[in-house]
Amino acid sequence: MSDAAAPRTWRFYVEDMIAFCDKALAYNQGLDRSAFGTDRMRYDATLRSLDDQALRRTRTASLKTRSTSSESSQPTQPSVMLWP
Fold first, then answer.
1. What pTM was estimated for this model as a whole?
2. Where are the domains of the chain?
3. Distance in angstroms (rounded) separating the CA atoms of residues 48 and 56
4. What SS3 class is residue 6?
5. Residue 24 · residue 50 · CB < 8 Å
6. What is the 3-state composition of the chain as percent helix, strand, coil, each rounded to the nearest 5?
7. pLDDT, mean over the chain
8. CA–CA dist 67, 56 (Å, integer)
């Protein structure tokens, strides 16, 4: 029996990314730009979720590149836009 945890597949990281984006959207539901900017806790929570999403995206890109090295596709990087 090994003490090391089994490595996660890139699909689990993608699920995490979606969850972090959903959190960021939920934190700001119904707010306008000025309300978002004045609520420091909400602002910090949103930035944290987006930062976590970016970290997973970086990890996912490296895992997917290694697992599909025979394919010549470049990973896409979705953009998250809080304000239109």
1. 0.61
2. 10-66
3. 12
4. coil
5. yes
6. 60, 0, 40
7. 78
8. 16
Q: Which of 84, 77, 74 is nearest to 55 (CA)?
A: 77
Nearest Cα to Cα of residue 20 among 60, 59, 58, 48: 48
To the nearest 10 degrees (0 to 180), the angle between helices 10-27 and 40-67 is 160
pLDDT, tens digit, for every residue of 36-51? 889 999 999 999 999 9
d(CA 78, CA 1): 39
Q: Is the pLDDT of residue 69 over 60?
A: no
Backbone angles phi, psi at 50, to 5 degrees: -70, -35
